[in-house]
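TA notes, week 10

Several of you asked for a full example with nothing omitted. So below is the full record: structure tokens for the whole chain, then the designed sequence directly under it. When grading your own attempts, check the secondary structure regions first.
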């Protein structure tokens, strides 16, 4: 018996990294999954993989920062599976090596549009359908940068701080509808996003030997380790949690 048997879940940014691992785990745990991502080829690849393993999956090319796309993704999920219980707002982009002064307005707008407005648009389209099922769970993927940060990451940190604040506000508005809303705050996780951040510093994950000293655990996380945390928030095991930041960071924020 799967932990998500009978559940219908929508996952954004599902073509890569944490979203991809979450899509595979949710399907393996019995969920019907509706996947959205901007990257069409990779989206097709994960869709095929899930289908080949006997999972039930629908997919749609989506830019979460566009209202029509967000709405169309939710509609595709409803048409494919007849409802919606879980939404994972995971799509995100980075912007590194840039102080506030150096941040171009277009870059600021794009980071906010994907990382923060995308959560608003997809959730707004999805909530009536979750409510119609008598409740469910929304999981927003923020970052440790919502709570503590470093130099030259101003726009990204601001967007993720916004995601955490929005998570709390959504949790308040939706509690009486039995819709729980929580955030996951990953530390460094070995995904293309993390690798591009390293590359901008002239480093690679292999060169570091996957060591990562800021984490007390001493290594970067794997996407599957985040997927398991997201699974916990999606299912009934977390039934008394809402408005919470779940920190999954190898001990990064615990460190003085
Ligand atoms: N990897 C890390 O170290 C790390 C740390 C903290 C938070 N996060 C967050 O986790 C989430 C997933 O990141 P990841 O590391 O798996 O990155 P990733 O780059 O591997 O995957 C992100 C996915 O989002 C998709 N995407 C980007 N813009 C989109 C858009 N406008 N519409 C739809 N899809 C879009 C990309 O095509 C990609 O498939 C992001 O929100 C990221 O900010 C990652």
């Amino acid at each position: 018996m799967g932990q998500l048997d009978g559940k219908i879940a929508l996952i954004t940014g599902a073509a890569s990294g944490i979203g991809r691992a979450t899509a595979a785990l949710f399907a393996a745990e019995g969920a019907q999954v509706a996947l959205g991502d901007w990257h069409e080829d990779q989206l097709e690849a994960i869709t095929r993989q899930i289908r080949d393993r006997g999972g039930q999956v629908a997919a749609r090319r989506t830019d979460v920062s566009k209202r029509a796309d967000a709405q169309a993704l939710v509609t595709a999920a409803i048409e494919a599976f007849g409802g919606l219980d879980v939404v994972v707002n995971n799509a995100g982009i980075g912007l590194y090596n840039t102080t506030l002064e150096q941040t171009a307005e277009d870059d600021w707008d794009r980071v906010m549009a994907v990382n923060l407005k995308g959560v608003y648009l997809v959730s707004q389209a999805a909530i009536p359908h979750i409510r119609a099922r008598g409740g469910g769970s929304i999981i927003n993927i923020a970052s440790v940068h919502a709570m503590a940060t470093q130099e030259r990451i101003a726009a990204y940190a601001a967007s993720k701080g916004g995601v955490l604040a929005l998570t709390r506000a959504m949790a308040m508005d939706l509690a009486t509808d039995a819709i729980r809303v929580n955030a996951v705050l990953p530390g460094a996780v070995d995904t293309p996003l993390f690798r591009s951040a390293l590359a901008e510093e002239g480093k690679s994950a292999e060169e570091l030997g996957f060591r990562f000293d800021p984490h007390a655990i001493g290594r970067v996380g794997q996407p599957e380790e985040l997927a398991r945390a997201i699974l916990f928030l999606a299912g009934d095991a977390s039934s008394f949690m809402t408005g919470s930041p779940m920190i999954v960071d190898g001990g990064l924020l615990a460190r003085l």
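Helices lie at 17-28, 40-52, 67-81, 105-132, 154-174, 192-200, 223-234. Use that as a sanity check on your answer.
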